[in-house]
C-alpha cells in the first residue's frame, strides 16, 4: 500500500511512522509513506495557503489551489486510483469497518487541514471520503490521520506477528474484546479465572465469547442494535438482565 499525507506540518509524523507497527510495516514492504507539505504547491510568492472566508466570519479557510494541484501531482504518479480522505469534524464517524474497507485499497491520500476549514470545492471535487474520529475538535487533521493510518496499516497482510490478532480485536467481530490475563496466576490476591487455567480449549473459547458479549452489553449496548445474536447469546443476555432486576 502507498500512503501520501498532505500536511503543513510533516515533522509531526516523524516519530509516529518510525516506531512500532508502522515502522515494521515499512521494513516488511507492506506500506510506503510520503509526507507532502502542500504549501510547496501554492502558486504565490509568499506560499500562502489560506485566506479570509467570503461572507465574513472568524478564522481562515484553506484555499483550493494548493490542494487541487498537490492531489493532481500525486494522482498522476499513481498506478492505482487513490482514495482521497479528508479529515474533518463533518465526516462520517470512523469505525473498524471503515478501517477494513480502506485496508483493501492500494493507494490512500490523506488531506490534513488547519485553520477554520476547507474551501467547499475541495470536498465537492477532490475528496472521495470524509472522516471524523469523534465528536470533538482538534487543531488540525494530523492527529486524526495518524489514528486512521495506524488502524489501517495493522490490518495489512503480514504486518502483525500473529495473523489472528487483528481478527480478534475489539470491534472486528462486532463486539468488544474479552478480558486478557497473563502470569502470575495470583497477583496480590487477584486471581485469574479458573477456566483459563483449565487447559479445556472449548470451555476457554466459550468463556471468551461470553465475556466479550457481556463487556459489550455493559459498556457499548449500542453495538448490539445491529449485531445478530445467536440463541445462546440471547440466553446469556436474558440471564444478565434477570440478575439486574
TrEMBL record:
GO molecular function per UniProt: tRNA (guanine(37)-N1)-methyltransferase activity
Species assigned in the record: Anoxybacillus ayderensis
Keywords: Cytoplasm, Methyltransferase, S-adenosyl-L-methionine, Transferase, tRNA processing
PANTHER family documented for this protein: TRNA (GUANINE-N(1)-)-METHYLTRANSFERASE (PTHR46417:SF1)
Pfam family, one: tRNA_m1G_MT
Gene3D superfamilies per UniProt: 3.40.1280.10, tRNA(m1g37)methyltransferase, domain 2 (1.10.1270.20)
GO cellular component: cytosol
Chain's gene name: trmD
Any GO BP: tRNA N1-guanine methylation
NCBIfam families: PRK00026.1, trmD
Functional summary from the UniProt entry: Specifically methylates guanosine-37 in various tRNAs.
Official protein name in the record: tRNA (guanine-N(1)-)-methyltransferase
Compartments where located: Cytoplasm
UniProt subunit comment: Homodimer.
Catalytic activity field: guanosine(37) in tRNA + S-adenosyl-L-methionine = N(1)-methylguanosine(37) in tRNA + S-adenosyl-L-homocysteine + H(+)
Leading EC class: transferase
Main location as per UniProt: cytoplasm
InterPro entries: Alpha/beta_knot_MTases, tRNA_m1G_MeTrfase_C_sf, tRNA_m1G_MeTrfase_TrmD, tRNA_m1G_MTases_N, tRNA_MeTrfase_TRMD/TRM10
Family: Belongs to the RNA methyltransferase TrmD family.
HAMAP family attached to this UniProt entry: TrmD (MF_00605)
Amino acid at each position: 500500500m502507498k500512503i501520501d499525507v498532505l500536511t503543513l506540518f510533516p515533522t509531526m509524523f516523524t516519530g509516529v511512522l518510525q516506531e512500532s507497527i508502522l515502522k515494521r510495516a515499512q521494513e516488511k514492504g507492506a506500506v510506503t509513506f510520503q509526507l507532502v507539505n502542500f504549501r510547496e504547491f501554492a502558486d504565490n510568492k509568499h506560499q500562502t495557503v489560506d485566506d479570509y472566508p467570503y461572507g465574513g466570519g472568524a478564522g481562515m479557510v484553506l484555499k483550493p489551489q494548493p490542494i487541487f494541484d498537490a492531489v493532481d501531482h500525486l494522482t498522476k504518479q499513481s498506478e492505482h486510483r487513490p482514495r482521497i480522505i479528508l479529515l474533518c469534524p463533518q465526516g462520517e464517524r470512523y469505525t473498524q469497518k471503515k478501517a477494513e474497507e480502506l485496508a483493501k485499497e492500494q493507494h490512500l491520500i490523506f488531506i490534513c487541514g488547519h485553520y477554520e476549514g476547507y474551501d467547499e470545492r475541495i470536498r465537492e471535487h477532490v475528496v472521495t471520503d470524509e472522516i471524523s474520529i469523534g465528536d470533538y475538535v482538534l487543531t488540525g487533521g494530523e492527529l486524526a490521520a495518524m489514528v486512521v493510518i495506524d488502524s489501517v496499516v495493522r490490518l495489512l497482510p503480514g504486518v502483525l506477528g500473529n495473523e489472528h490478532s487483528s481478527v480478534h480485536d475489539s470491534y472486528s467481530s462486532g463486539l468488544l474484546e474479552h478480558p486478557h490475563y497473563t502470569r502470575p496466576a495470583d497477583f496480590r490476591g487477584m486471581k485469574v479465572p479458573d477456566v483459563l487455567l483449565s487447559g479445556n480449549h472449548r470451555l476457554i473459547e466459550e468463556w471468551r465469547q461470553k465475556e466479550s458479549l457481556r463487556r459489550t452489553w455493559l459498556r457499548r449496548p449500542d453495538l448490539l442494535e445491529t449485531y445478530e445474536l445467536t440463541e445462546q447469546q440471547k440466553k446469556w443476555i436474558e440471564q444478565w438482565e434477570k440478575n439486574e432486576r
